[in-house]
Design goal:
Blueprint (H helix, E strand, L loop, with lengths): L2 H6 L2 E3 L2 E4 L5 H7 L4 H7 L1 E5 L1 H9 L4 E7 L6 H12 L3 E5 L1 H8 L7 E6 L15 E6 L4 H14 L3 E5 L8 H7 L8 E4 L1 H11 L2 E5 L5 E2 L10 E5 L8 H6 L2 E4 L11 H12 L1 H9 L1
Parallel strand pairs: 2-5, 4-5, 7-8, 7-12, 8-9, 10-12, 10-13, 11-13
Antiparallel strand pairs: 1-2, 3-6, 4-6
Length: about 290
């Protein structure tokens, strides 16, 4: 332990450690979570905002560290979250706004940040029933798109998101922000194209793929007979031939105007709400 670390933090106050130095080793480890390699090695990720942290704890996610700004000290909800963190064996840090800004890379950061253990599902954990819907994304690269799709899947009542091939990290800070907390509610799976195709054969699902060459209007598909997997392609190149050929139905979203394509997150939302329209209508009548 360095002399600087001994002087600047962390200083234990009850169950809380105060940290004011940007050079604190714990802070350095937390800041490193902006790098995918460090997230993979530690198996953790960062979530900003008191609501997200509360949602994660209510859904049973394991918290390693809670960080809050000094200005949040004494707020009842922050105190409750801190107590839960300590009860689960986690560390609680009270930090300056300068330290919090450094962690979140924001000038006006959220007052609370949680460091959680990543949670991945396996393909064989997914055993969808008749009225269930999944989204499968091939090589999605944009964190904002992925986060928005996870959030939309949650809103539509989908059962999970499958990431095929080299996809952006669902636990990156940008993606987690875009999910608005839905990353804690929607199971996420990662797999290769070959693993997905093998699972498709044995799972009894109906794969409906969007494709520019699709000749079927997406609104004419019967999504009620089998559990549906909505297969969406890469933002730039679309679906590769091997995935498109293996789909049970290849569909297209009709368009007018000069735009020749939709944003991936928008197209996924259109597909999701159509596939679950019959279920969402039933929910409204309850």
């Amino acid at each position: 332990m360095t002399d600087e670390y001994q002087k600047s933090g962390p200083r234990r106050v009850g169950q809380v450690k105060e940290v004011t130095s940007l050079s604190n080793p714990i802070i350095k480890d937390i800041k490193a979570l902006t790098n995918k390699k460090d997230r993979e090695e530690s198996g953790t990720f960062m979530a900003e905002g008191l609501k997200l942290v509360i949602d994660a704890l209510e859904l049973g996610w394991s918290i390693r560290t809670l960080v809050y700004a000094k200005a949040a000290k004494g707020k009842p909800l922050v105190g409750q979250v801190a107590a839960k963190t300590v009860a689960h064996g986690g560390l609680v840090l009270e930090v300056s706004e300068k330290v919090l800004s450094s962690i979140t890379r924001r000038d006006n950061p959220q007052m609370v940040v949680g460091i959680f253990e990543q949670r991945w599902k396996k393909l064989d954990d997914l055993r969808p029933g008749r009225d269930e819907t999944l989204v499968a994304l091939d090589r999605v690269r944009d964190p904002g798109n992925l986060g928005t799709i996870i959030r939309t899947a949650d809103a539509a009542g989908a059962s999970g998101v499958i990431l095929i091939g080299e996809c952006t990290d669902p636990f990156s800070l940008e993606t987690v922000r875009a999910t608005m907390g839905s990353v804690f509610a929607v199971p996420v799976v990662k797999c290769s194209a070959e693993e997905f195709l093998n699972w498709q054969k044995r799972s009894g699902v109906q794969v409906v793929a969007t494709h520019l060459a699709g000749a079927v209007d997406y609104r004419t598909v019967d999504y009620t007979k089998k559990p549906a997997v909505l297969l969406m392609g890469n933002e730039q190149s679309g679906l590769p031939d091997n995935l498109a050929r293996a789909a049970d139905r290849t569909v297209r979203i009709p368009q007018q105007g000069r735009a020749d394509s939709l944003n991936l997150a928008v197209a996924s939302a259109v597909m999701l709400f159509e596939a679950r329209r019959h279920l969402l209508t039933l929910d409204e009548k309850k």
